Protein backbone atom coordinates (compact mmCIF):
# COMPACT_ATOMS: atom_id res chain seq x y z
CA UNK A 1 0.00 0.00 0.00
CA UNK A 2 1.39 3.40 -1.00
CA UNK A 3 1.40 5.50 2.19
CA UNK A 4 1.58 8.77 0.26
CA UNK A 5 -2.07 8.66 -0.76
CA UNK A 6 -3.21 7.96 2.77
CA UNK A 7 -0.91 10.58 4.28
CA UNK A 8 -2.17 13.11 1.77
CA UNK A 9 -5.71 12.65 3.01
CA UNK A 10 -4.60 13.64 6.50
CA UNK A 11 -4.06 17.19 5.26
CA UNK A 12 -7.84 17.52 5.19
CA UNK A 13 -7.92 16.56 8.88
CA UNK A 14 -5.75 19.52 9.85
CA UNK A 15 -8.86 21.69 10.28
CA UNK A 16 -10.04 19.35 13.04
CA UNK A 17 -7.11 20.40 15.20
CA UNK A 18 -8.14 24.04 15.48
CA UNK A 19 -5.80 26.55 17.01
CA UNK A 20 -5.03 24.48 20.09
CA UNK A 21 -3.33 21.46 18.58
CA UNK A 22 -3.05 18.75 21.22
CA UNK A 23 -1.85 15.17 21.33
CA UNK A 24 -5.38 14.07 22.30
CA UNK A 25 -6.87 15.61 19.17
CA UNK A 26 -4.17 14.08 16.99
CA UNK A 27 -4.88 10.73 18.65
CA UNK A 28 -8.61 11.15 17.90
CA UNK A 29 -7.85 11.72 14.22
CA UNK A 30 -5.48 8.75 13.97
CA UNK A 31 -7.87 6.52 15.93
CA UNK A 32 -10.63 7.31 13.44
CA UNK A 33 -8.36 6.74 10.47
CA UNK A 34 -7.19 3.40 11.87
CA UNK A 35 -10.79 2.33 12.51
CA UNK A 36 -11.71 3.27 8.93
CA UNK A 37 -8.86 1.18 7.55
CA UNK A 38 -6.76 4.01 6.11
CA UNK A 39 -3.87 2.60 8.15
CA UNK A 40 -4.33 -1.21 8.02
CA UNK A 41 -2.88 -3.54 10.66
CA UNK A 42 0.87 -3.92 10.22
CA UNK A 43 1.32 -0.46 8.65
CA UNK A 44 4.34 1.54 9.81
CA UNK A 45 3.35 5.10 10.72
CA UNK A 46 5.72 7.76 9.45
CA UNK A 47 6.43 10.55 11.92
CA UNK A 48 7.56 12.90 9.17
CA UNK A 49 4.66 12.13 6.85
CA UNK A 50 1.87 12.29 9.44
CA UNK A 51 3.40 15.21 11.34
CA UNK A 52 3.78 17.17 8.12
CA UNK A 53 0.26 16.39 6.92
CA UNK A 54 -1.32 17.46 10.21
CA UNK A 55 1.09 20.33 10.83
CA UNK A 56 2.04 19.16 14.33
CA UNK A 57 5.36 18.87 16.10
CA UNK A 58 7.24 15.62 16.47
CA UNK A 59 6.73 15.72 20.24
CA UNK A 60 2.96 16.14 19.87
CA UNK A 61 2.79 13.27 17.41
CA UNK A 62 4.88 11.01 19.64
CA UNK A 63 2.55 11.72 22.55
CA UNK A 64 -0.43 10.80 20.33
CA UNK A 65 1.35 7.58 19.38
CA UNK A 66 1.92 6.88 23.08
CA UNK A 67 -1.79 7.34 23.83
CA UNK A 68 -2.81 4.98 21.04
CA UNK A 69 -0.19 2.44 22.11
CA UNK A 70 -1.76 2.51 25.57
CA UNK A 71 -5.12 1.81 23.88
CA UNK A 72 -3.53 -1.20 22.16
CA UNK A 73 -4.07 0.19 18.66
CA UNK A 74 -0.37 0.79 17.99
CA UNK A 75 2.79 -1.03 18.92
CA UNK A 76 6.34 0.33 19.16
CA UNK A 77 9.07 -1.90 17.78
CA UNK A 78 12.59 -1.13 18.90
CA UNK A 79 14.69 0.49 16.16
CA UNK A 80 11.86 0.00 13.65
CA UNK A 81 9.22 2.53 14.58
CA UNK A 82 5.50 2.56 15.38
CA UNK A 83 3.08 0.16 13.67
CA UNK A 84 -0.65 -0.43 13.64
CA UNK A 85 -1.15 -3.47 15.80
CA UNK A 86 -1.97 -6.91 14.40
CA UNK A 87 -4.16 -8.72 16.91
CA UNK A 88 -3.57 -12.29 18.00
CA UNK A 89 -6.53 -14.68 17.91
CA UNK A 90 -6.57 -14.68 21.71
CA UNK A 91 -6.90 -10.89 21.63
CA UNK A 92 -10.04 -11.15 19.51
CA UNK A 93 -11.57 -13.72 21.87
CA UNK A 94 -10.73 -11.53 24.88
CA UNK A 95 -12.35 -8.50 23.24
CA UNK A 96 -15.57 -10.50 22.92
CA UNK A 97 -15.40 -11.58 26.55
CA UNK A 98 -15.10 -7.94 27.53
CA UNK A 99 -17.97 -6.95 25.26
CA UNK A 100 -20.22 -9.62 26.71
CA UNK A 101 -19.50 -8.47 30.25
CA UNK A 102 -20.10 -4.81 29.48
CA UNK A 103 -22.96 -4.90 26.98
CA UNK A 104 -25.05 -7.50 28.78
CA UNK A 105 -24.53 -5.68 32.08
CA UNK A 106 -25.78 -2.45 30.52
CA UNK A 107 -28.98 -4.11 29.27
CA UNK A 108 -29.47 -5.94 32.58
CA UNK A 109 -29.26 -2.65 34.51
CA UNK A 110 -31.60 -0.61 32.31
CA UNK A 111 -34.34 -0.42 34.92
CA UNK A 112 -37.98 -0.03 34.00
CA UNK A 113 -39.22 0.79 30.49
CA UNK A 114 -39.77 2.80 28.43
CA UNK A 115 -36.16 3.13 27.31
CA UNK A 116 -34.73 5.97 25.21
CA UNK A 117 -33.90 4.12 22.01
CA UNK A 118 -33.59 6.83 19.36
CA UNK A 119 -29.84 6.33 18.87
CA UNK A 120 -30.16 2.55 18.78
CA UNK A 121 -33.01 2.75 16.25
CA UNK A 122 -31.00 5.12 14.07
CA UNK A 123 -28.07 2.67 14.02
CA UNK A 124 -30.37 -0.22 13.03
CA UNK A 125 -31.83 1.86 10.22
CA UNK A 126 -28.36 2.92 9.10
CA UNK A 127 -27.28 -0.71 8.78
CA UNK A 128 -30.40 -1.77 6.89
CA UNK A 129 -30.07 1.11 4.41
CA UNK A 130 -26.40 0.31 3.83
CA UNK A 131 -27.28 -3.36 3.20
CA UNK A 132 -29.93 -2.43 0.63
CA UNK A 133 -27.31 -0.30 -1.14
CA UNK A 134 -24.77 -3.13 -1.06
CA UNK A 135 -22.46 -0.99 1.10
CA UNK A 136 -21.06 -3.71 3.34
CA UNK A 137 -18.39 -1.54 4.91
CA UNK A 138 -21.22 0.82 5.76
CA UNK A 139 -23.01 -2.12 7.39
CA UNK A 140 -19.88 -2.79 9.45
CA UNK A 141 -19.74 0.83 10.58
CA UNK A 142 -23.45 0.85 11.41
CA UNK A 143 -22.99 -2.29 13.48
CA UNK A 144 -20.28 -0.57 15.49
CA UNK A 145 -22.65 2.36 15.98
CA UNK A 146 -25.36 -0.04 17.18
CA UNK A 147 -23.18 -1.43 19.94
CA UNK A 148 -21.90 1.98 20.96
CA UNK A 149 -25.48 3.25 21.20
CA UNK A 150 -26.44 0.18 23.19
CA UNK A 151 -23.74 0.87 25.76
CA UNK A 152 -24.65 4.57 25.75
CA UNK A 153 -27.98 3.57 27.31
CA UNK A 154 -26.06 3.29 30.58
CA UNK A 155 -25.49 7.05 30.57
CA UNK A 156 -21.88 6.56 31.68
CA UNK A 157 -19.04 8.52 30.08
CA UNK A 158 -16.52 6.00 31.45
CA UNK A 159 -18.37 3.05 29.93
CA UNK A 160 -18.67 4.90 26.63
CA UNK A 161 -14.90 5.52 26.63
CA UNK A 162 -14.18 1.89 27.44
CA UNK A 163 -16.40 0.66 24.63
CA UNK A 164 -14.94 3.13 22.15
CA UNK A 165 -11.50 1.63 22.74
CA UNK A 166 -12.73 -1.97 22.67
CA UNK A 167 -14.61 -1.52 19.39
CA UNK A 168 -11.75 0.40 17.77
CA UNK A 169 -9.45 -2.50 18.66
CA UNK A 170 -11.94 -5.01 17.26
CA UNK A 171 -11.98 -3.23 13.92
CA UNK A 172 -8.31 -4.15 13.53
CA UNK A 173 -9.50 -7.74 13.22
CA UNK A 174 -12.21 -6.78 10.73
CA UNK A 175 -9.61 -5.17 8.47
CA UNK A 176 -7.55 -8.36 8.43
CA UNK A 177 -10.56 -10.51 7.49
CA UNK A 178 -11.89 -7.89 5.05
CA UNK A 179 -15.25 -9.62 4.55
CA UNK A 180 -17.77 -7.13 5.97
CA UNK A 181 -20.75 -8.77 4.28
CA UNK A 182 -19.95 -12.22 5.59
CA UNK A 183 -19.21 -10.90 9.07
CA UNK A 184 -22.08 -8.47 9.53
CA UNK A 185 -25.02 -9.28 7.25
CA UNK A 186 -26.27 -12.16 9.46
CA UNK A 187 -26.51 -9.82 12.44
CA UNK A 188 -28.68 -7.12 10.87
CA UNK A 189 -31.84 -8.99 11.76
CA UNK A 190 -30.50 -9.72 15.25
CA UNK A 191 -29.88 -6.01 15.85
CA UNK A 192 -33.51 -5.42 14.87
CA UNK A 193 -34.68 -8.18 17.24
CA UNK A 194 -32.81 -6.65 20.18
CA UNK A 195 -34.25 -3.22 19.38
CA UNK A 196 -37.79 -4.65 19.12
CA UNK A 197 -37.41 -6.44 22.46
CA UNK A 198 -36.31 -3.23 24.17
CA UNK A 199 -39.14 -1.29 22.55
CA UNK A 200 -41.54 -3.85 23.96
CA UNK A 201 -39.99 -3.39 27.40
CA UNK A 202 -38.66 -6.96 27.37
CA UNK A 203 -35.30 -6.25 28.96
CA UNK A 204 -34.58 -9.86 29.99
CA UNK A 205 -35.32 -11.14 26.48
CA UNK A 206 -33.09 -8.43 24.97
CA UNK A 207 -30.26 -9.48 27.28
CA UNK A 208 -30.66 -13.13 26.27
CA UNK A 209 -30.70 -12.22 22.58
CA UNK A 210 -27.59 -10.09 23.03
CA UNK A 211 -25.68 -12.79 24.91
CA UNK A 212 -26.35 -15.37 22.19
CA UNK A 213 -25.53 -12.79 19.52
CA UNK A 214 -22.11 -12.04 21.03
CA UNK A 215 -21.30 -15.70 21.63
CA UNK A 216 -22.15 -16.60 18.03
CA UNK A 217 -20.23 -13.62 16.69
CA UNK A 218 -17.15 -14.49 18.78
CA UNK A 219 -17.15 -18.06 17.47
CA UNK A 220 -17.58 -16.93 13.87
CA UNK A 221 -15.04 -14.13 13.89
CA UNK A 222 -12.30 -15.92 15.82
CA UNK A 223 -12.56 -18.86 13.41
CA UNK A 224 -12.38 -16.69 10.29
CA UNK A 225 -9.68 -14.46 11.78
CA UNK A 226 -7.50 -17.43 12.74
CA UNK A 227 -7.60 -18.66 9.15
CA UNK A 228 -6.82 -15.19 7.77
CA UNK A 229 -3.85 -14.75 10.11
CA UNK A 230 -2.48 -18.22 9.36
CA UNK A 231 -2.89 -17.65 5.61
CA UNK A 232 -2.78 -13.94 4.72
CA UNK A 233 -3.66 -14.80 1.10
CA UNK A 234 -6.86 -16.60 2.10
Compact summary:
The protein has helices spanning 3-10, 23-36, 47-54, 58-70, 89-108, 118-132, 136-152, 157-177, 180-199, 203-230; strands at 44-45, 74-77, 81-84.
* Average pLDDT rating: 90
Rg, Cα atoms, Å: 19 Å
Instruction: Write down the overall geometry.
Output: globular
DSSP helix fraction: over 70%
Count of distinct strands: 3
Strand order of the largest sheet: 1-3-2
The profile of the biggest β sheet is: 3 strands, antiparallel
Strand content: under 5%
Low-confidence stretches: none
- The H/E string reads HHEHHEEHHHHHH
Would you give an account of this structure?
The protein has 234 residues and is mainly alpha-helical. 70% of the residues lie in helices and 4% in strands. The chain is built from 10 helices and 3 strands. It has helices at 3-10, 23-36, 47-54, 58-70, 89-108, 118-132, 136-152, 157-177, 180-199, 203-230, and strands spanning 44-45, 74-77, 81-84. Helix 6 runs antiparallel to helix 7 and helix 7 (136-152) runs parallel beside helix 9 (180-199). The chain starts with a helix and ends with a helix.
Overview features:
234 residues, three-stranded antiparallel β-sheet, 10 helices, mainly alpha, single chain
Please describe the topology of this protein.
Blueprint: H1 3-10, H2 23-36, E1 44-45, H3 47-54, H4 58-70, E2 74-77, E3 81-84, H5 89-108, H6 118-132, H7 136-152, H8 157-177, H9 180-199, H10 203-230
Antiparallel strand pairs: 1-3, 2-3
Amino acid sequence: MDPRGTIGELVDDRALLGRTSTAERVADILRTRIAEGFFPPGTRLSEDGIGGALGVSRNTLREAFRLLTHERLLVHRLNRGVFVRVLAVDDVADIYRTRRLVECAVVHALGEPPFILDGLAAAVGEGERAARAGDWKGVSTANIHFHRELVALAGSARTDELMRGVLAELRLAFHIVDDPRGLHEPYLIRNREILDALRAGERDRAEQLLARYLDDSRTRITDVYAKAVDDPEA
